[in-house]
Amino acid sequence: MTVHFDIDTQLDFVVPAGALYAPGAEKIVETVAELNHRAPLVISTTDAHAENDPEFRQWPHHCVAGCLGQRKPASTLLEKRVVVPNRPGEIAIGGARQIIIEKQALDCFTNIHLARILDSLDADHCLVYGVVTEICVKFAAFGLLKTGRKVEIVTSAIRSLDDAAAAATLADFQAAGGRLV
Q: What pTM, to 2 d.p., does this model score?
């Protein structure tokens, strides 16, 4: 099964007034929305930080749970969706076309449910896109490669904070067996 990974397309990252805006990210929202709506299944990662999150020692306050900047653009959301918080407990994803994985760290695999969800879906092919290329997209793409899945990054649907670091990330991704589409 092919699963699309919509990485961190949240208002704080994709709109110019966002707290940690990736330049030009507003230009990929329409493409992300199209990819999500065409996908058989979407796993969307979202930062869901507490007010005093340790990450704010390194980065400005962003994507605080429940605040406007933490939301995804409405066009990227699918009707049948479920939110998976990063805490122990039962999760029910049956019937969902979009699984929103909350995280408090850069790496989406820090959500305790993600690996089990992927295994339950029999996902063998992953299409990755979102923001930002050299950080959270990188963690997702390389994490998926480590699981042995076929992984592709959609280059028309990613944006970065540092173009040189993003180019290096994409080169390393290809060298590790990933594919750019």
A: 0.96
